[in-house]
Amino acid sequence: MANKTNLTNLSVPAKLTNGGVAGLVGVTCVFPIDLAKTRLQNQHGKMDRCLVKTAHTDSFCGMYRGAAVNLTLVTPEKAIKLAANDFFREQLLQDGPSP
Hints:
With 99 residues, the protein is an all-alpha fold. The chain has one domain. The chain has four helices and no strands. Helix 2 crosses helix 3 and helix 2 crosses helix 4. The two termini are 27 Å apart. It is a multi-pass membrane protein. One of its GO terms (cellular component) is mitochondrial inner membrane.
């Protein structure tokens, strides 16, 4: 139960920061796969070959070309979403008046 108490005592800026970091990590992990999926929509082939070809052709950094827009937009969205989710969960779990 001590872990639950620590999570509920986090300030709103800390919750927003945690949500933003979660968004950054999520986009960073998924962006190369999404890039390959988008490229495969225009051609036929396998996902793994597309990822390898992109890595060889564009280098590792090329796998993240265009990610800045996603990072810029997803970070505040996830921060607000996760902080609001935590807020509403706390509100709904509070004991209400007895019937």
